[in-house]
Design brief:
Distance between the termini: 54 Å
Strand content: 5-15%
Number of strands: 3
Number of helices: 6
Length: 124
């Protein structure tokens, strides 16, 4: 049986270790799953996804979530510190456990743009 999942696997890729376990594996390994009482389990990958997570209204990552989930080179704790934000709160925004206000999201975006300008201005 093949799982047709409308929820992108990117959303379940929490950190490099999880990313390796669920996204960066072969289709064969990903196909070795079992259904349990609460979700899907991949024994060889030591990974679980709950059935409940498929019913979330906002299962697609936001643009901000997608940015941080695809740019692992950004140290979330240091990024949060640099804008005066609690690192756990930023991680909660990235993982979808909390939603930032429009003002907070703009602050995060402005800092990303500032970093981008600093990086493009670098010369050796």
């Amino acid at each position: 049986m093949r799982i047709e999942n409308p929820v992108p696997l990117l959303f379940f890729a929490e950190g490099d270790f999880h990313r390796h376990r669920i996204i960066d594996v072969t289709d064969g390994k990903r196909a070795e799953y079992k259904f349990g009482m609460g979700g899907i389990h991949w024994k060889a990958l030591d990974e679980d996804i709950s059935f409940e997570s498929f019913t979330y209204d906002d299962a697609e990552p936001t643009a901000m979530q997608r940015f941080f989930l695809t740019h692992k080179e950004i140290n979330v704790a240091e990024f949060a510190r640099s804008i005066g934000m609690n690192a756990t709160l930023l991680r909660n925004y990235i993982n979808g456990f909390k939603k930032p206000s429009a003002e907070r999201e703009q602050t995060i975006l402005n800092h990303i743009h500032k970093l981008g300008k600093e990086l493009t201005a670098a010369c050796f």
